[in-house]
From TrEMBL:
Domain of life: Bacteria
Species of the source: Allotamlana fucoidanivorans
Domain YdhG-like: 16-112
UniProt-recorded name of the protein: DUF1801 domain-containing protein
InterPro entries per record: YdhG-like
Length: 125
């Protein structure tokens, strides 16, 4: 079993179901994306550049769906939040699968993929 699969299966509910659902949407929306296990969490890359990652922050009760170039996307996608005053990344916090607007999320994934492809560096700030 791949480390990323072990990561998902080791999560408690409802986090496991949320993460598996988000993973499925990402992989079906962007079939060319590369799923990797880095820094002990799942990342979704365009080529070698990270685009989005999934995390559960200690002391929080949600799955953090984090967009690496989120600062460039937040004006067009107000669902993105600047949690913890992060410079570059922005995220969607999901407490339940129903919290995800799949159509808007798919549009966000396409925009994030385009930004990642065009960007010279993954981490620019």
């Amino acid at each position: 079993m791949k480390p990323v699969d072990q990561y998902f299966l080791s999560q408690k509910e409802p986090y496991q179901s949320i993460m598996l659902y988000v993973r499925n949407v990402i992989l079906n929306t962007l079939p060319h994306v590369v799923e990797r296990y880095s820094y002990k969490i799942p990342f979704y890359n365009i080529g070698k550049k990270p685009m989005v990652y999934l995390n559960i922050l200690k002391g929080k009760d949600y799955v953090d769906v984090v967009f690496v170039h989120g600062v460039l996307l937040e004006n067009d996608f107000p669902v993105l939040k600047n949690d913890n005053n992060r410079k570059q990344v922005r995220s969607i916090q999901l407490k339940a699968i129903e919290d995800l607007d799949q159509e808007n999320f798919e549009q966000l994934l396409h925009a994030a993929a385009e930004n990642t492809r065009k960007g010279k560096k993954a981490w620019f700030l």
